[in-house]
Amino acid sequence: MSDGMARARQAMLELVLQYVKDPRVIEVMAAVPREAFVLPEWRDRAYEDSPLPIGHGQTISQPLMVAMMLEAAAPGGAERVLEVGAGSGYTLALLRRLAGRVYGVERIPELAARAVENLRACGISDVTVETAGPALGMPRHAPYDLIVVSAAAPNVPQPLLDQLVPAGRLVMPVGSRMHQELVRVRRSGAGWQSRFLGPCRFVPLIEREPRRSE
User: Fold this and answer.
1) How many domains does the chain have?
2) For 134, which of 4, 122, 191, 210 could close a Cys bridge (C-beta 3.0–4.6 Å)?
3) Would residue 77 count as lying in a domain?
């Protein structure tokens, strides 16, 4: 890592420390090289607190948003975690250091394949990454203790809640393209409790369309 990139990473961590207090989140943000998950032409800007293009009209989320989401999710060391909207694999790499079994689903096949390559380049080979099928999420590996959704939807999708264990929780941005809030949903008895954690900005969640018969 160049001196300039090292200084940029330190600046990123100092910014995150102003808003995130969980020391585990700070530790993994310092340990995982964000430059490994961006396109080569953007690597000199990898530690800017801004989303960066990763191809196919998608972006890697800004570091502060990722850190805030991880703090809200509070993954435990032995938990089964699913990320919806895996992108280039950055958040999966962070989750792998915080949780037990980690899964990722991505609707764009090229990005799903790149996420696997990026993770392996960082020495991570035990995260399951799949291309999205007709069903939202990854039902065949459910249930999960925690689901993190790295894309925004107008409401929390019921199919994702259905993939949680009875005491599970979900963290995702909810709202329109221009106005979103980070939400944490927990099961409470027979219902759900939602807590709004502040404004955020993510790309929209788009469900994969099922194939039409000819």
Assistant:
1) 1
2) 210
3) yes
Rounded to two decimals, the pTM is: 0.90
Q: DSSP of 173-212, one letter per residue?
A: EEE-SS-EEEEEEEEETTEEEEEEEEEE--PBP-PPPPPP
Burial letters for 56-89: b for 16+ Cβ neighbours within 10 Å, e otherwise?
A: eebbbbbbbbbbbbbbbbebeeebbbbbbbbbbb
Domain enclosing residue 134, as ranges = 63-200
Checking if the pLDDT of 207 tops 60, the result is: no
Identity of the amino acid at 39: L
Q: From the centroid of its chain, how far is CA 43? A: 20
State the sign of the Cα–Cα–Cα–Cα dihedral 99, 103, 105, 111.
positive
Total Cβ atoms within 10 A of residue 23: 9
Is residue 213 situated within a structural domain? no
94-127 confidence digits (pLDDT tens) = 999 999 999 999 999 999 999 999 999 999 999 9
List the catalytic residues. Answer: 61
* Separation between Cα atoms, residue 52 and residue 86, nearest integer Å: 14
How far are the Cα atoms of 24, 88, 120, 169, 195 from residue 73, in angstroms, in the given order?
Answer: 12, 20, 24, 8, 12
